[in-house]
Specification:
With about 500 residues, this protein is of the alpha/beta class. It has 18 helices and 21 strands. The strands form 5 sheets. Strands 8-7-17-18-19-16-20 form a 7-stranded mixed sheet. A 5-stranded parallel sheet has the order 10-2-1-14-21, covered by helices on one side. Strands 13-12-11-15 form a 4-stranded mixed sheet, with no helix packed on it. Strand 1, helix 3 and strand 2 form a beta-alpha-beta unit.
Length: about 500
């Protein structure tokens, strides 16, 4: 759901024509078919097991799908009336059949596991962004067009003394060599002793100590990456290493960003369609009890409490929601600390429906990085029709602040801020919609991250089973904030339970 500190590898602007975009997309789909097919989990390791999965987000659905394929009896309890969790496509607020993503939005071509499921369910892919139109960069109140593949240029207001290393040079000099020390970022013991000290600082604190200029840090934090200012640098390094390894496995040095045509929620819906009668909607788990022989889930539906028993339980909801669950007996001290203290990033998305896509008429892509910090996307890129939706993607403290404001004030901010970057919004604006993930009752935040000190003290306990209870979700993966991480965790818990 978040881009966070990923732009250097996942949003590199390349210069290629619309025809080349289609050709590259076809290549990506072909690669999915021949090189990214799903490796089966194998034959079941033991007797048929009864499993209850709490949460029909992508992790819970994947775990259920794989467990059923292994011959186990699985029931899913989902509090909402739809599958997908934070993979959620908005349709009803908009006109002319337009839709926009409220949560997970992008699929990098190196995310082979995600693409493999997309291919298995025969879902069509489309480019996330135009490859042949300029972006806008809005920094220091300086508005600049970024041609595809153009060289980095400092904004005019940046003093000459601050124009030292560019953001790309900073990453190559100070970040990549450290990430290279992580030989296997997917291993349980992935942390080399030489890097442990970097769990005590943020990325920006470390870089500032190396003499990196404030201007370079400011430019690195454009868009939606303010979490880099508070996130453990060791957590950042692992993500860099994971992305590097995924690109190596995919055999690519350049990333394209894709999306599912018709909406990314088609992926969780495809899982759900293949699990008939197994998902029980509007069933909110309240308590998980276990002993040496079984586990029982107490859940609420239609105002009444019910219970269901099984051999094992998969808790596939965010820890921000798991904090509400009662566990009996109580969890270990380490697991309890992980659930209670794992932070979640604040995200507010403001959607501005415009009567026409004036930015296309002006030869622009409809995408931008700003130092609010905020990204702007053409949420309807590739969709048919005259109308379009510009979406402002805001994270961090500003997202929390906006999340507490009235919708009138939220939309007023969105129109004003986007107008500075894409003049013409005020004239074309028809209606708006706001999604605040902090106030979503079944999310209470967007994606998980780790603060300084938490990699060494919490990370190893996030995914660890507690007796008969297993844990899945993007937070319990090697790649937090992406559909790939959720799917990875779902397959992991399926293996864990099958092997018991």
């Amino acid at each position: 759901m978040s881009s966070r500190d990923r732009k250097p590898t996942l949003q590199k602007r390349h210069s290629y024509s619309r025809r080349e975009v289609v050709e590259r997309l076809a290549w990506a789909a072909a690669a999915t078919a021949v090189g990214c097919s799903l490796a089966p989990l194998g034959a079941s390791a033991g007797a048929r097991k009864r499993v209850i999965v709490i949460g029909a987000g992508l992790a819970g659905l994947c775990a259920t799908y794989e467990l059923v394929a292994l011959g186990h009896d699985v029931t899913v309890l989902e509090a909402q009336d739809r599958p997908g969790g934070r993979v959620h496509t908005l349709r009803r607020p908009f006109s002319d059949g337009l839709y926009a993503e409220a949560g997970a939005s992008r699929i990098p071509t190196s995310h082979e596991l995600t693409l493999a499921y997309v291919r298995q369910f025969d879902l069509p892919l489309a480019p996330f962004e135009p490859g042949d139109l300029p972006w806008i960069r809005y920094a220091y109140r300086d508005r600049a067009k970024l041609p595809p593949g153009g060289a980095f240029e400092w904004p005019a207001p940046v003093p000459v003394a601050q124009r030292q290393l560019t953001p790309a040079q900073v990453r190559r000099r100070y970040i990549d060599p450290l990430a290279d020390q992580i030989l296997d970022p997917f291993a349980s013991d992935w942390i080399p002793s030489s890097l442990e000290k970097y769990d005590q600082v943020t990325r920006d604190e470390y870089l500032r100590r190396q003499g990196v200029s404030d201007a370079a840090l400011h430019m690195m934090n454009l868009g939606s990456t303010p979490v880099a200012r508070i996130r453990s640098f060791l957590d950042v390094l692992r993500e860099v290493a994971v992305n590097r390894e995924l690109r190596r496995r995919a055999g690519t040095t350049e990333e394209l960003l894709l999306k599912i045509r018709g909406g990314n929620d088609r992926l969780p819906q495809a899982f759900a369609d293949r699990l008939p009668e197994r998902i029980r909607y509007r069933c909110a788990a309240r308590r998980i009890a276990q002993d040496s022989t079984a586990a029982t889930v107490l859940f609420e539906t239609a105002g009444s409490l019910h219970s269901a028993s099984a051999d094992y339980v998969v808790c596939a909801v965010p820890f921000s929601i798991a904090r509400r669950l009662e566990f009996s007996p109580g969890l270990s001290v380490e697991k309890k600390a992980a659930i209670e203290t794992l932070p979640y990033h604040s995200v507010t998305r403001i959607y501005l429906q415009c009567r026409d896509r004036f930015w296309v008429r002006e030869g622009l892509g409809g995408f931008a990085d700003t130092d609010y910090p905020m990204e702007i996307w053409d949420a309807t890129y590739g969709q048919k029709g005259r109308r379009g939706i510009l979406m402002s993607f805001i994270q961090g403290p500003k997202a929390r602040e906006l999340g507490q404001a009235s919708q009138t004030d939220q939309l007023r901010f969105g129109v004003r801020a986007v107008e500075e970057v894409y003049p013409g919004v005020v004239k074309a604006y028809e209606r708006g919609f706001v999604k605040v993930w902090d106030t979503d009752p079944w999310a209470r935040g967007a994606v998980a991250y780790l603060l300084p000190g938490q990699v060494l003290t919490l990370d190893r306990y996030i995914a660890r089973p507690e007796g008969r209870v297993h844990f899945a979700g993007e937070h319990a993966s090697s790649l937090r904030g992406w559909m790939q991480g959720a799917l990875e965790s779902g397959r992991r818990v399926a293996r864990e339970i099958d092997a018991r």
